[in-house]
Amino acid sequence: MKKILSAALLALLCGSGNAFAAGNTEAPNVEKFSLGYEGILAGNVVQGLSSRYWFTNNVGGEVNLSYGRLGVNIDNASIDDSHASLLMGSAKVMYAPVVKEHSRFYVGLEGGIGNVGIEVNDEDALPNTDVNVYVVSPLIGSEFYFAELPELGLNWEVGYRFQTVNIDDDAAEVDLKLDGTFVTVGAHYYF
Fold it and tell me: Residue 120 in 3-state DSSP?
């Protein structure tokens, strides 16, 4: 894991060397609050409300709140309805070494925490169990603005997600590691 992070950081630093030499162009939406959508391209599980803010021309932050629900129909007389839900919040710090008039290229780090609930027949299926999700994601991305509509920002991101699902009950504690690449898209309107 340390080797992957070190290699990714080295590649980003080496690749952004020419970006620092580029002119310091002012991109739109500095010091403006935004509200929008952010979602991982993996179905409809982790989609949510997002807010982004660029503190300076190069440094920004983002917070996300996601909710997903998965329903299961089982042909069984004792189980009528079952579903699992995920509520997750995350925060992201972004640094943009490349800033153009209508776009930014950035690197970032996201961290998040969530909770999973499982219900069968409208009752908690795991009453004495906590299921929590923890996420850390280094990423690269870009945000684009239209010249005619600079308040609208469209973004994409690619990164590596380190995700731990912690299941803690009276009998045992289990940690599931779900690591892998991800692609995210989003749209924000800046006020």
Answer: strand
* Residue type, position 83, single letter: H
> Which residue segment(s) compose the domain that 23 sits in?
2-190
For residues 87 and 70, give the distance between their C-alpha atoms in angstroms, rounded to a whole number: 12
Q: What Å distances lie between residue 21 and 30, 62, 98, 124, CA to CA?
A: 21, 27, 9, 57
CB of 37 within 8 A of CB of 152? no
Whether the predicted model's global pTM rises above the 0.85 cut: no
Residue 168 belongs to a domain with what CATH number?
2.40.160.20
Residue with tokens 């998965």: 70
Tell me the two tokens of residue 191. Answer: 């006020």
Q: What is the mean pLDDT of each run of 10 residues along the chain (191 residues)?
A: 55 49 69 93 78 96 91 67 85 97 96 88 74 95 94 96 87 85 95 94
CA dihedral 20, 21, 22, 23 (to 10 degrees): 100
When divided into structural domains, the chain yields a total of 1
